[in-house]
Amino acid sequence: MMVDVERGGQRIANPSRALVEDRTRAFAKRCEQLSRRLPTLYGGELLRADGVTDRLGCGRSAIALYNATLPPDVIHRTGTDLEHIALWQYCAADGLVAGPASYPREAPGCGRVDISAVVLAGGVEALLS
Predict the structure, then answer these.
(1) Do β-strands 106-107 and 40-43 pair in parallel, antiparallel, or remain unpaired?
(2) Cα distance between residue 44 and residue 30, in whole Å
């Protein structure tokens, strides 16, 4: 399960850092109460702009950054570290592309989709555990 923390289509035009953090922490806590699992925190620009300093109660992170690399400063400005990143979304279906031409930009049989790379040590097996 994942909580998507970003600006796109939100009801509050410019949420405060406190609001973002409080609501995300409450969501993560409720998820844990109901499922005994912590959600993955997905986000990009909003988390970096707000300067979050931790995963807001979530277990792992999924970072959106449409770039050829995932620099350490970006990782830390989204409140996480290499040990807790599960996914790096490097390509978005809306036409934003990233990285060298060799990076996949479409899924066979689906066409253009948001594409993430699993970067969690241990790969898919660790992600599923």
Answers:
(1) unpaired
(2) 23
What is the maximum span of the chain, computed from C-alpha positions, in angstroms? 43
* Integer Cα distance of 29 and 73 in angstroms: 27
Judge whether 69 and 103 are in contact, CB under 8 Å. no
Token duo for residue 44: 């990009």
Reading the block at residue 73, the tokens are 């400063």
pLDDT along the chain (129 residues), means of 10: 82 82 96 96 88 92 86 88 88 67 78 81 75
Q: Strand order of the sheet with strand 85-91? A: 2-5, 40-43, 60-64, 85-91, 115-118
Give the domain extent around 68: 2-128
The tally of domains found in the chain comes to 1
